[in-house]
Amino acid sequence: MSAEPKILVVDDELVVIRSAERVLKSEGYQIEGALGGREAILKMEQGAYDLVFTDLKMPEVDGITLIRWIKKSRPNIGIVIITGYPSQDTMKEALELGIIDYVPKPFTPSVLLDVTKRAVEWAEGRKPAEEKAAEEFPPAMAKELDRVIGEYRHRPGSLIPALQRAQEIVGFLPPVVQKRIAKGLNMPEAEVHSVVSFYSFFTMKPRGDHNIRVCLGTACYVKGIEGVLEKIKERLKIDIGETTEDKKFSIEGVRCLGACGLAPVMMIDQETYGAMTPSKALKVMGEYGGPAGDQSPDEETAAVAEQEG
Ligand code: FES
């Protein structure tokens, strides 16, 4: 894919095309518009595009018909739906056809940019699997991944365990891994992608050596997890979803770690730590080689008071 992905925005309302154009051009994407499915097909027959963002309800050639055509004739183009209120059936059909994502109308610039970024990443993962695997995996890792996929191939309900094993092997689940799993388990890539996006224990970005999972559920929130999280963020100088420069730690925010009686709770890798306070969190991080040794005098006093109290 070129450095500036080329996107075709298809909508029967010019105002939608114009506003998508305004938002996406400012980020360096190349945008063209088509006022309906028919015009979109003509454009795709004459030029190459990386992504198509399409409305569903359009006169003559509607969105679903257009998606079917793309899947058959231009299978390497990624598809995103931009639409108002799709019926569940239409949405299900679109998902089954393998769309990447959905932008609700009217959209805000940040939602559109966020989905576009993901769609571009997704479309980049559509290079031939072997080519991409050679770029991103050591051969031993690819071999192990294929062995695991093979193990789960004929087992019902195997997607989540297969993804878990894949994440253990690769460390995260980028589009190329999702695609390999979809192919191996013989299921739509969109289904794999939606499961990975839905469960917080799956990540599409590489994590650090130690993953800190901070519970943001109600019980933990009420007991003060916010202060704990702030302290961890401040000390590691990263936000939720990020990894430290030395690749040692990442922070993840989750809804409930299933240990509400111990609130506030955090986990580092597979270990659960309850009744957290900001200074205890620093101390625990220190056990994993985190920057806990340089506690300020105030933090040291607080830690001692907590231990004594
Ligand atoms: S709310 Fe935090 S563990 Fe359940």
Explain this structure to me?
The chain has 309 residues and is an alpha/beta fold. The chain folds into three domains: 6-124, 3-Layer(aba) Sandwich (Rossmann fold); 129-198; 210-308, Glutaredoxin, CATH 3.40.30. Helices cover 50% and strands 14% of the residues. The chain is built from 14 helices and nine strands. It has helices at 14-25, 37-46, 63-73, 88-97, 109-124, 129-136, 139-152, 159-170, 175-185, 189-198, 218-222, 225-236, 278-287, 297-308, and strands at residues 6-10, 30-34, 51-54, 78-83, 101-104, 210-215, 249-254, 266-268, 271-273. Strands 2-1-3-4-5 form a five-stranded parallel sheet, with helices on both faces. A four-stranded mixed sheet has the order 7-6-8-9, covered by helices on one side. It starts with 5 loop residues before the first strand and ends with a helix. It binds FE2/S2 (inorganic) cluster. FE2/S2 (inorganic) cluster is lined by residues 215, 217-220, 256-260, 263, 265.
Number of strands: 9
Associated small molecules: FE2/S2 (inorganic) cluster
Name the poorly predicted regions: 127-134
In percent terms, what proportion of residues is strand? 5-15%
The radius of gyration over CA amounts to 23 Å
Q: Which percent bin holds the helix content? A: 40-55%
